[in-house]
Amino acid sequence: MMANIWADLGLTDNPYDPRPLSIDADDRELFVGRTETLDEFNTLLSTKGGMIIVEGKVG
Fold first, then answer.
1. Environment class of 31 (CB within 10 Å of its CB; exposed 0-12, middle 13-18, buried 19+)
2. Could you tell me the CA-to-CA distances from 18 to 28, 53, 56 in Å, in that order?
3. pLDDT, tens digit, for every residue of 29-51?
4. Which of 29, 21, 11, 26 shows the shortest CA–CA distance to 45?
5. What are the angstrom distances between the C-alpha of 35 and each of 2, 28, 47, 55?
6. Which residues lie below 8 Å from residue 14, measured CB to CB, with a gap of 6+?
């Protein structure tokens, strides 16, 4: 049986998983204090379709 390289490195799973995160109420709570950004994000998701990548520093 093939060894799990991620477990050998102390990780629970592949950190480079390309599947998008689901968007739910808990995820929306992460945008506290970013009302304008959240409005733009929701508008893009509802009108454009496809995939949106959000990046930047935490905080």
1. middle
2. 20, 11, 18
3. 776 777 888 788 788 878 866 67
4. 21
5. 47, 11, 18, 17
6. 6
